[in-house]
Amino acid sequence: MTTRTLGIIAGGGQLPVIAARGARRQGFRVVVSAIAETRSTFPKKGAARLEFVSLGRPGQTLSFFREEGVTDVVFAGKVDKSLNFANLDFDDVAMAMIARLPGRADMNIAAVLIDELTSRGFHVRAQTDFLAELVAPAGRIAGPEDGAPEREKRIGLEVASALAAHDVGQTVVLRDGAVIALEAFEHTDATIKRAARLAGGDLVVVKMARPRQDLRFDVPAVGPQTVKLLSAAGAKALYVEAGKTLLIDRRKLEKLANTAGLMIEGVERPASVE
Question: What's the rounded Cα separation, in Å, for the pair 180 and 192?
Fold first, then answer.
């Protein structure tokens, strides 16, 4: 039986490492193209081969994957949205991709990247194919039994779902049923910090995936750092979409939530906004 090779395009954080571990369990040989600008800390021993490649040089990654006999590709890890693209040195492949971009929205960039890889014979896989151990289940995950009042929870779910549907952001923060902050270009953690400055204490945070979330490129995630921020802000509940949210370092996340008295629950998307 021929061993298949998985190429991981790795951003920052631990997700690329966990994805590599999950792939090896499935019998894949793993090689990694780590995005240099993310300061990836992927360990050399974690892959059969590791290269650091600038985000502006996708042609280098394609050549690397071809040399290594890559059959399947997965994106994993964080790429900071504040990255200054103007400072990147773009190769010919990147310039051709930029010319096809209909806009700068995350999903537009993702679609062009995936199309480029697919057109060259690579099978781009969903992140959850290799990160299944991290996917949030439905129901209470950590913390006390009681979260937000049902009305406040419903408002948060409906607003967050509508926000995600317009590809604006995925997170909404409420207090006493009033919307305090909505995520736009910033990440979830920045939205929580802004809400804490505006109305700290008794915050309720809801994070939902886009209705057509492309799990090949972008899966919503929360981790210990988010829980620490919520605890510092005096939040009482965090709701995430079950089956479409990754729980990073789940054991530590649950311990922190239990200590802080923060209820975390996996929820389904409201039928009214599907």
Answer: 10
